[in-house]
Amino acid sequence: MAESAPKRQRTKGPEDESSEEASEEETLESDGEFGDEQVTLTFGGEDATAAVIWMHGLGDTPSGWAEDANDIREQVAHTKWILPCAPEHPVTCNGGGVSTSWMDLVEIPITTRTKDNGRDLPES
């Protein structure tokens, strides 16, 4: 028997410091097409004994990984998957263009010698 579709939960902004659960309006039933919404996606039941926090790459969103994450979760049934979405900021290596990013990246590829300007790091 197939499991029900995972739910998408909207991410609350930094101005919302409460730990309330999402209201019904903030939780959307998924129809298998996850879209490009900037939301935190959560997959897995309350019986999970392990959690995976999957952080997407530069310019991506949780929706870009949702199908793969859910496929893996189905194979490892005891896990809960949390796919947060990075905030949007200007990114130096993209000529200052705004995209989802966990921090400002000065250059790509990132190596052990790449300088870190620390911009946007506290928010991430």
Low-confidence stretches: 1-36
The number of helices is 1
Strand order of the largest sheet: 2-1-3-5-4
SSE-based structural type:
mainly beta
End-to-end CA span = 39 Å
Largest sheet entry: 5 strands, mixed
- The level of helicity is under 10%
How much strand? 15-25%
The string of secondary-structure elements, in order, is EEEEHEEE
* CA-atom Rg in angstroms: 16 Å
Q: Could you tell me the number of beta strands?
A: 7
Query: Can you tell me the overall shape?
Result: elongated
Mean pLDDT: 74
Description:
The chain is mainly β and 124 residues long. Helix content is 8%, strand content 20%. It is built from one helix and seven strands, in the order ββββαβββ. It has one helix at residues 66-75, and strands at 7-9, 27-29, 40-43, 50-53, 79-83, 88-90, 98-100. The strands form two sheets. It has a five-stranded mixed beta sheet with strand order 2-1-3-5-4, covered by helices on one side. Strands 6-7 form a two-stranded antiparallel sheet. The longest helix is centred in the middle third of the chain and has 10 residues, at 66-75. The protein is elongated, with a radius of gyration of 16 Å.
